[in-house]
């Protein structure tokens, strides 16, 4: 999903950069209400996890491979604003240190892998929680669906960006068919990783899953005192 330099023309890259800066700016303001003494450390861990996971590719089909986008996962764990910031930092480091996605295309990549997956994934996740029963399985299932949908949504967003400023001589129809076809499969891997991660955190610290704080009861530790021995 990383877009390289030169794949989108200069006007398109500049416009995407403006949108990305605006999105990150809004996220910076909103994150002040999300980050507390519990979520702030988790946001750093989430960014590190997404960074590491994006370095690992899994085979999809016809010689292609995919990797975690992480937007839906980050939003569910630490909130949409902090999630946008976490993934944006990951993309910036990848562009600077590994040339994974170009610097001129950084705005495009932030839109495709931070803004769109976070917004689509988190909104769908919260919508599903409104109609599902209060249980760990429901939260994990909602995370699975939200992460799955966020990936083809990002692919569709790329198609729109390409239609506005793509430099390759490929028809929009072919781009849309290729992107959506492959990314539906990638979405399955994204959904599995997200659901397993969210379920694992829920098992030990449900209060750390920002998106499900009002849906899950905190884990209660019960200490049973030994009964007094009879004389």
Mean pLDDT: 86
Helicity level, as a percent range?
55-70%
Total of DSSP H or I helical runs spanning 4+ residues:
7
Unreliable spans: none
CATH fold call: Arp2/3 complex 21 kDa subunit ARPC3
| Secondary-structure element string | HHEEHHHHH
- Using DSSP, what is the number of strands? 2
What is the structural class?
mainly alpha
User: Between the first and last Cα atoms, what is the distance in angstroms?
Assistant: 73 Å
Q: Write the CATH architecture name.
A: Orthogonal Bundle
Describe what you observe in this structure:
- The chain has 231 residues and is an all-alpha fold.
- The protein has one domain (10-212): Arp2/3 complex 21 kDa subunit ARPC3, CATH 1.10.1760.
- The protein contains 7 helices and 2 strands; from the N terminus they run ααββααααα.
- The protein has a two-stranded antiparallel ribbon with strand order 1-2.
- A hairpin with a 5-residue loop joins β1 (58-59) and β2 (65-66).
- α2 crosses α4 (80-98).
- The longest helix is centred in the last third of the chain and has 33 residues, at 172-204.
- The mean pLDDT is 86.
Break the fold down into its secondary structure elements and pairings:
Blueprint: H1 10-34, H2 39-54, E1 58-59, E2 65-66, H3 71-78, H4 80-98, H5 106-131, H6 136-165, H7 172-204
Antiparallel strand pairs: 1-2
Helix pairs in contact: 1-4, 1-5, 2-3, 2-4, 3-4, 3-5, 3-6, 3-7, 4-5, 5-6, 6-7
């Amino acid at each position: 999903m990383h877009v390289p330099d030169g794949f989108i023309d200069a006007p398109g890259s500049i416009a995407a950069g403006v949108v990305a800066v605006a999105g990150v700016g809004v996220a910076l303001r909103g994150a002040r209400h999300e980050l507390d003494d519990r979520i702030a450390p988790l946001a750093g861990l989430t960014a590190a996890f997404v960074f590491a996971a994006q370095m690992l590719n899994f085979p999809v089909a016809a010689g292609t491979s995919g990797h975690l986008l992480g937007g839906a996962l980050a939003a569910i764990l630490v909130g949409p604003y902090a999630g946008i910031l976490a993934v944006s930092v990951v993309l910036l480091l990848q562009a600077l240190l590994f040339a994974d996605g170009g610097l001129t295309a950084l705005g495009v990549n932030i839109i495709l892998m931070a803004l769109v997956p976070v917004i689509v994934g988190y909104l769908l996740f919260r919508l599903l929680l409104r109609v599902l029963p209060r249980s760990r399985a429901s939260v994990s299932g909602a995370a699975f669906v939200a992460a799955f949908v966020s990936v083809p949504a990002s692919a569709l967003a790329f198609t729109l960006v390409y239609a506005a400023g793509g430099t390759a001589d490929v028809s929009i129809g072919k781009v849309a068919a290729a992107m959506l076809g492959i990314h539906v499969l990638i979405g399955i891997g994204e959904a599995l990783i997200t659901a397993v991660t969210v379920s694992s955190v829920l098992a030990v610290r449900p209060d750390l899953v920002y998106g499900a704080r009002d849906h899950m009861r905190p884990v209660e530790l019960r200490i049973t005192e030994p009964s007094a021995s009879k004389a």
